[in-house]
Amino acid sequence: MGNVYRKREVSLTVSGTDYRIPLVGQVTRFNAAQFGQKQVFGDVSKDDELLTSTYVPIADQTGGIGVYDAEEGVHDDRSFFSTAELGVKGHLLLPPLVTTTTNPGVTEPGIGVEYNNLMYWAYADKVHSWSEGSTTWGSSIKTLTANPTDVIVHKDKKYWACETDFDRYDGSAWTDGATLGTAQPCRYFTEWDGKLFSLDNDGQLDYTIDEGETWITSAKSDLPPGSFTSLFVYRDLSGNFIIHLGTKIGLFTLNFDSALWIETDLEMPFHDVAARGSDRWYDAAYVPNGGSITRYKAPGSLEMTPVGPDLDYGLPGKYRGNIIKVIPGQSHLFALIDATSALAKTTYLASYNHAYGNVSIHDKLGFSAVLKSDSLGDRIGRWSVVYLSGSTARPARDAVITTADGQYRLWFAADDRVQYISLKLTKTNPLEDADHEYALTGVHETSWFDANRASVSKVGARVNGHMSDTSSTEYVKIYYGTDYDDDTYTLLTSTTFSDGQVDADGDFEFQFASFAGIAFSAIRFKVEHYRGTSSTKVSPDLHWLRLSYMKVLEPRPGFRARLDCTRDYRMRTAETLLSTLEIAEGTKSLMAFQFNDSDTHYVRLLSREGQETHGREQEGIFDAVFVAP
Predict the structure, then answer these.
(1) pLDDT digits (tens, 9 = 90+) for 70-85
(2) Contact 108, 124 (CB under 8 A)
(3) Is the domain of 512 the same as that of 538?
(4) What is the pLDDT of residue 120?
(5) In this structure, are residues 83 and 442 in contact, taking their beta carbons and an 8 Å threshold?
(6) Is the separation of the CB atoms in 288 and 336 below 8 Å?
(7) Which residue among 499, 532, 552 closes a domain?
(8) What span, in angstroms and rounded, lies between the C-alpha atoms of 205 and 259?
(9) What is the CATH classification number for the domain harbouring 66?
(10) If you write DSSP's letter for every residue of 9-20 in order, what string do you get?
(11) Are residues 19 and 55 located together in one domain of the fold?
């Protein structure tokens, strides 16, 4: 395309031919990159501003954790990770208080049980009882045969499984299998049809009908020794309760009359903790496998549904680990996660009969945690955190829900200590419970938000929200991060909250970068909750948080020009110039457009409006609009 030598003309290349068309006035440049107009149904709201958009990352968070990238309108009730209380819509609160008990010795706590309204816990092979009055574990009341692997209460007696034998306690005296008649190897217990069943490390199932004095042989598994991870009772397809055996390759059921283990459809890749700590909760069995959980619902037609905290994005990498037990509660299902061990696993046979080939599963390093879910019905994957250990914590071992001493609690062993959380028999809004106790701190991280347009730049203008129940010691701090930098957060401050502590009730507002705004493609927020030490029954309450931002498109040049096609110009007739514009309107390729000596733009003729003369002469003056893609 040749240079333009005359001021009052434009050059337009159509179908490979350069046409010069005279101008009336000057070419007007404008930005052609524009969003469509917003559509409002019903009455307008604060979110219907023409240029500024809003997003509410925190209001209803009851959908739980596990979403890394939020899709607006789909994940509005979800977050990435949080230790805050998420169960109350419109209220983000401190997590429940976790009470840590004193270790009575130098060994790690193992497993615990409630018996005769008292709490007992085994520290290695030493059994200790809990004193609610002094809030301490007493001295050892029994040295067991070995470190126990399971414990059960059967017909008012307590049985501890100790590998080579069991120890039994009737409330006043201790005995063991060898003393009663013969030593009974046992790793797991369960109770069914009035009988006490014992499974040993070799897969031999026996049962007693006389409280451990004699044992009757039942089914023997043909899996290798050490393949067994749980023993519990759940329904079969006919709705009858039967014994289920969890193994490192999946789930089996007992045919009692034939003394046989029957493989179910729930097969798993070989894993040291597959099916460990499985149990039933209401109408289904919940079977862990590594960091996942399968809801196994047998009566009628078999249903197997993934419901674990690994759904969607799952837990952050440093918090991922093995679910070693599920604990059924009245209103929630709890999961105990141990992420402290790093087992050097490579490739395993995926099932006993090699049905799935070879599969590799690697355990993760990280923290230990207690999670809870109310995933009943279609509410799948609604997990939240009730306890998170430090990064150097010792392993998690066991958890149990009891009503010992008249206190409904979740007890769990982690980081060399037995700890507990108070529970409620019914779902209760903590704000309506004057006795609810809160932890000292909590952290809530929202999902990444990109306005469902990852490629479009945005400018954050401000963040506002609403707080209640604040004080000089009860407050929140709010941070933001941008563009998928998972390690960097910036504290929001203002003249009112110069230290970032939002410690006043009511609405609050932060302007990004002192009103200059911040550019981002994606953004997320972190909220830290704090309370003082004078009372455990108070929590700052964040009701909602709203981001105001503008979407920014990359500029696209557009040009308005009044073109004179009323006269012959540069050896072309007015009729030719007019037909050139008609051809340009219909061309399906971009055209080179130039109106000065330096810049060439590739454009489409978007529109032309003007008046044409009538009769034999074909000429006119047109207002043309050219836009670049």
Answers:
(1) 999 899 999 999 999 9
(2) yes
(3) yes
(4) 98
(5) yes
(6) no
(7) 552
(8) 9
(9) 2.60.120
(10) EEEEEETTEEEE
(11) no
| Mean pLDDT of the chain, nearest integer | 90
Cα dist. 305→144, 269, 290, 308 in Å? Answer: 40, 16, 16, 9
Question: Taking phi first (over 0 means left), then psi (-120 to 50 degrees means alpha), and beta for anything else, what does residue 606 get?
Answer: alpha
Structure tokens at 621: 């003056």
Q: What are the tens digits of pLDDT across the range 99-113?
A: 999 999 878 899 999
Distance (Å, whole) CA 148 – CA 159: 10
The number of domains in the chain is 2
Residues 543 and 613 in one domain: no
Q: Are 141 and 172 in contact (CB under 8 A)?
A: no
Query: What residue numbers bound the domain in which 457 lies?
Result: 46-95+442-552
Any residues with CB less than 8 A from the CB of 218 and at least 6 apart, and which? 197, 205, 206, 207, 254, 256, 259
Reported pTM: 0.86
Which residues lie across from 569 on neighbouring strands? 572
Pairing mode of beta strands 69-70, 448-449:
parallel
Rounded to the nearest angstrom, the gap between the alpha carbon of residue 192 and the centroid of all alpha carbons in its chain is: 37
* Rounded average pLDDT over 354-373: 61
Answer whether residue 541 is part of any domain.
yes
CA atoms in the 13 A half-sphere facing the CB of 401? 21
Q: With contact defined as beta carbons under 8 Å apart, do 556 and 31 qualify? A: yes
Of 552, 578, 604, the residue at which a domain comes to its end is 552
Same domain? For 498 and 542 the reply is yes
- pLDDT confidence of residue 46: 60
Same domain, 460 and 543: yes
57 in a structural domain: yes
213-244 exposure pattern, b = at least 16 Cβ within 10 A, e = fewer: eebeebbebebeeebbbbbbbbbbeeeeebbb
Domain assignment present for 468: yes
Number of C-alpha atoms within 13 angstroms, CB side, residue 390?
A: 6
Q: How far apart are CA 607 and CA 326, in angstroms?
A: 67
Residues 455 and 546 in one domain: yes
- The DSSP string of 445-510 is EPPEE-TT-TTSEEEEEEEEEEEES--SSSEEEEEEEETT-TT--EE---SSSTTS-B-SSEEEEE
Compute how many other C-beta atoms are within 10 angstroms of the C-beta atom of residue 560: 16
Residues 548 and 454 in one domain: yes
Q: Three-state secondary structure along 61-107?
A: CCCECCCCEECCCCCCCECCEECCECCCCCCEECCECCEECCCCCCC
* CA proximity to 234, closest of 225, 226, 243: 243
Q: Give me the pLDDT at residue 615, please.
A: 62
What local confidence, expressed as pLDDT, does residue 347 receive? 39
pLDDT exceeds 70 at position 355: no
Q: What is the DSSP track for 333-359?
A: EEEEEE--------EEESSTT-TT-EE
List the structure tokens of 135.
Answer: 């809030």
Tell me, yes or no, whether 194 lies in a domain: no
Does residue 459 sit in the same domain as residue 547? yes
Q: What is the pLDDT of residues 578-604, one digit of tens each?
A: 899 988 988 889 999 998 767 899 999
How far apart CA 113 and CA 68 sit, in angstroms, is 38
Residue 548 has pLDDT above 80, yes or no: yes
Tell me if 197 sits within 8 A of 218, measured CB to CB: yes
Distance CA 346, CA 361 (A): 7
Amino acid at 47: D
